[in-house]
Amino acid sequence: MLQQMELPGLAFAVWMLICFYAPVGGYPNGKVREACTSMVPCHGSSPQLSPEHTITVNGTEFKPGDSIEVHLSGPVFEGFFIQARDAEHLESPALGSFMLADRGASQLLTCAHTKNSAVSHTSKAKKKHIKVYWIAPGNAPKRVQFLATVVKKYKIFWVKIPGPIVSQPNALSPTPPLHATSGAVSTSHPVSYLSKPFNASSCGRTKFCIRNPSNCDPESASCFFLSFQQEGSSVFVEMSGPSEGYLAFALSHDQWMGDDDAYLCVGEDHRVRTITAYLKERSPPVLDSENALEDVSWRLADGLLQCSFRRSIRLPAHKGRFNLDASYYIFLADGEASEGGVIHKHRQQPLITNGIYNITGLPQDIGGSRSPRLIKAHGTLMFIAWITTVSIGVIVARFFKPVWSYSFLFGKEMWFQVHRMLMLTTVMLTSISFVLPFIYRGGWSQQAGFHPYLGCTVMALAIFQALMAGFRPSRHAPRRQLFNWFHWCTGTAARILAGKQVQ
Question: Is the bond into 213 cis (omega within 30 degrees of 0)?
Answer without folding.
Answer: yes
